[in-house]
Amino acid sequence: MTVQDQRLAEVQTPALLLDEAKMTRNIDRLAAHVGGKGVMLRPHLKTAKSTDVARRVLTDGTGPATVSTLAEAEVFAEMGVRDIIYAVGITPDKLGRVAALRDKGCDLSVLLDSVAQAQAVAEASARLGQAIPALIELDCDGHRSGVAPGDPVLVEIGRILHEGAAELRGVLTHAGESYEMTGRDVHRALAEVERAAAVGAAETLRAAGLPCPVVSIGSTPTAHAIEDLTGVTEVRAGVYVFFDLVQAGIGACQQDDIALSVLTTVIGHQQQKGWVITDAGWMAMSRDRGTAAHAVDQGYGVVCDEAGQPIPGLTVIKANQEHGIIAAREGYEGEVPDLPLGTRLRILPNHACATAAQYGAYHVIPSAPGAPLLTWPRFGGW
């Protein structure tokens, strides 16, 4: 056995593995790209949900950061992060938790895209005696929620916040459609659409006599491809820390950049079908089939040996709750290695966020050769 095999042999499967060296390389690459253009990077911590990962992603541990749940905001604020955007549309019942975090010294801002939400934030600000900062979400590509560019409601929302007891912090958009498009050139074009929408909205607010200090854009594909950041104050991205098969499939990264994998054990065979059965089903991998529409469908994940080297032609073709079924992909005519009972394999995930969500901890393979495995807890909830 190699040193690495000996370390992994002590881990019960299925288990979530994190390659620290690849993670660090991914973090450094985007920090250099965005920082080199003179704009602040605001990492999204929703994929990681780990204080250990956050300490490596954030420049000094205090922020700035993005989250997608108030549970994340609470954990990271307790860790010492002081600048957080809660980047999911706010509801009135959550404003008490927002105010409580702000009372503890965390500059937590919320996101909204409607008059009703703005009124709720303004009313809560008056009632609680503090100006809750809010960003107006923009829909730059028809992907999800947000105010459409040019919609007069943008200024109406801004006035409710600014003239009420709240704080108009700025605008925010997310090029979610970039996850459906392939290629750096396409991502660069979408990044410009994202930038133009945000900068245009900021100019509209300022022309109406309203403040707009923050102009926030970002998605992992567009953050890596963007060249012009004129008028932008910050860029957000999250899954870039780990990457996954979806990101590799659309050209945002290479497969070798994927830092997460699921360690699994061969538990049986169906020789007549050419199947290898493992203990990593959809409870371990998630049901995400994000590569199904790609040029190369990766099934439920790409199969690697225990050292993390992809085994040509093999994917997880089916997944039951606790059973993963490995076979050669359709049309593959190469040799398939013998994988006897007890063989340890790694599976690269389609969607890092969904797969990581199945686990309570990362088993971290340290950058230092031969160093013992580390365990970094992760959390869930809302």
Indicate the topology:
Blueprint: H1 3-9, E1 15-19, H2 20-35, E2 40-43, H3 51-57, E3 65-67, H4 70-79, E4 83-89, H5 95-103, E5 107-112, H6 115-128, E6 133-138, H7 153-163, E7 167-173, H8 184-207, E8 214-217, H9 220-225, E9 234-237, H10 245-249, E10 260-270, E11 275-278, H11 282-285, E12 302-305, E13 310-319, E14 324-328, E15 344-348, H12 352-356, E16 361-365, E17 374-377
Parallel strand pairs: 1-16, 2-9, 3-4, 4-5, 5-6, 6-7, 7-8, 8-9
Antiparallel strand pairs: 1-10, 10-11, 10-15, 11-14, 12-13, 12-15, 13-14, 16-17
CATH class of the largest domain: Alpha Beta
User: Largest beta sheet: what is the strand line-up?
Assistant: 2-9-8-7-6-5-4-3
What class would the helix/strand composition place it in? Answer: alpha/beta
How many strands? 17
Strand content: 15-25%
Assign the CATH architecture of the largest domain.
Alpha-Beta Barrel
Describe this structure in words.
The chain is of the alpha/beta class and 382 residues long. It folds into two domains: 3-16 and 259-377, D-serine dehydratase-like domain (Lyase, Ornithine Decarboxylase, Chain A, domain 1), CATH 2.40.37.20; 37-242, Alanine racemase (TIM Barrel). It is 31% helix and 25% strand. It has helices at residues 3-9, 20-35, 51-57, 70-79, 95-103, 115-128, 153-163, 184-207, 220-225, 245-249, 282-285, 352-356; strands at 15-19, 40-43, 65-67, 83-89, 107-112, 133-138, 167-173, 214-217, 234-237, 260-270, 275-278, 302-305, 310-319, 324-328, 344-348, 361-365, 374-377. It has an eight-stranded parallel β-sheet with strand order 2-9-8-7-6-5-4-3. The longest helix is centred in the middle third of the chain and has 24 residues, at 184-207. It is elongated. The model has no long low-confidence stretch (mean pLDDT 96).
